[in-house]
Amino acid sequence: MDHFDYRAGVLHAEDVPLAEIAAQVGTPVYIYSTATLERHVGVFREALAPLADPLVAFAVKANPNAAVLATLAKLGLGADVVSAGELLRAIAAGIPASRIVFSGVGKTEEEMRLALEHGIFQFNLESEPEAEMLSEVALSMGKVASVAYRINPDVDAGTHAKISTGKSENKFGIPYDRALVAYDRAAQLAGLDVQGVAVHIGSQLTDLAPLESAFTKVGALIERLRDAGHAIRTADLGGGLGVPYDPALPVPPSPAAYGAMVVRVTQGWNVRLMFEPGRVIVGNAGVLLSRVIRVKQGASQPFVIVDAAMNDLLRPSLYDAWHDIRAVRPRNAQVQATVVGPVCETGDTFATARDIDAVEADDLLAFMTAGAYGATMASTYNSRALTPEVLVTGDQWAVVRARPPVEALIEGDSIPDWLRG
Questions:
Q1: Are 294 and 288 in contact (CB under 8 A)?
Q2: 76, 152, 222, 233 - which has most CB atoms within 10 Å?
Q3: Does 6 count as an annotated binding residue?
Q4: Was 76 annotated as part of a binding site?
């Protein structure tokens, strides 16, 4: 459920007409609903209520906007980060370091040092050389790093190949069959406190079976590790729970169903469970608002050309992702059209031969479920300014990231002396 609905024939974000924001901020613009964020956090937490003190660490990569993170911090969420930049964003937004987990395959010495200085809760290690590097950094600082190994369980998540992370050919984690050797070696490294196990098999999962398979493997591994003398105290079960993009497809499992499965599978583990939800928290909480530039008749159907582009919302181009497209003021008529942006790439296509609300030049269109992996993946391709972001609460709204002037892009470049004059 989200808080974007029609009132008197006009699409609103909570109590704010989207057309009001477009008139004052311009388009394209991302718009986030505080009430939706609050509801999703509440539903996810309720699903995990039977667990003792779970750490819910929001996946910052899904939406790193400072206002979004500050909203989630007020709701008590931690953060799952994958870079120094995300770590600093989370802390600046008010998320305590004691609720931050650092994941990612390519942590540098500088990032490790920064995370240790702030005193984060856990590093999720993804290779034995990474463990050795972290040990050296921790020793040089006189600190101890709390760590878990991310295990690759070789489980096919059944999701898009580019967001699958738990198969043996994926770059993430250490092979399940090598876990005992890796843990034995890590236990011998000074400066490390080997406290947990981590797993994350992919994003936008629409079936609980792969997750249950991976979690079952984690449970068996915890037993083996303890038998080998390792004091396992935490288990990070990652994220990946899908959200409904296409209303024609089956609805993904609910957080309640996910939570019930987790409670059943992890019974008796005697660990603090950790979770890294991203999309399921922010996906439905955001839309990308765009304006129709013109409608162009093609050989077989019209092209609806909008001012948003693949650099603003990359998912359709990168993943063939589906986003519901709604007119802000529907005319009670439908048309089959292809919706495209102005970028000079055929891949700048949001929908092909889609039945949508009939629109004309200057009409507003909303790309729904755009709160996750939207603005965070935006670029300045074709020298287009980054998309601004707005946060709504009730009948109030604020720009939480302004649209930078194009001149700022130009001024960011430097022309060497030999090209001047």
A1: no
A2: 152
A3: no
A4: no
Cis peptide before 252 (omega within 30 of 0): no
Question: In CATH, what class is 4-31+283-411?
Answer: mainly beta
pLDDT in tens, the chain (421 residues): 789 999 999 999 999 999 999 999 999 999 999 999 999 999 999 999 999 999 999 999 999 999 999 999 999 999 999 999 999 999 999 999 999 999 999 999 999 999 999 999 999 999 999 999 999 999 999 999 999 999 988 765 444 444 444 334 555 678 888 999 999 999 999 999 999 999 998 878 888 998 999 999 999 999 999 999 999 999 999 998 899 898 888 889 999 999 999 999 999 999 999 999 999 999 999 999 999 999 999 888 899 999 999 999 999 999 899 999 999 999 999 999 999 999 999 999 999 999 999 999 999 999 999 999 999 999 999 999 999 999 999 999 999 999 999 999 999 999 999 998 7
Instruction: Quote the tokens at residue 111.
Output: 């990032």
Short-list 327, 347, 350, 355, CA closest to 339: 350
Active site residues: 344
Say which amino acid occupies 411.
E
Is 345 annotated to bind a ligand? Reply is yes
**340 near 349, Cβ under 8 Å?**
yes
| Burial class of residue 252 (count of CB atoms within 10 Å of its CB; 0-12, 13-18, 19+) | buried
pTM: 0.94
DSSP letter for 202, please: B
Cα four-point dihedral sign 174, 177, 183, 186: negative
**Where in the chain are the domains?**
4-31+283-411, 34-280
The answer on whether 113 is annotated among ligand-binding residues is no
176 is in an annotated binding site: no
Annotation: CATH topology of 34-280: TIM Barrel (3.20.20)
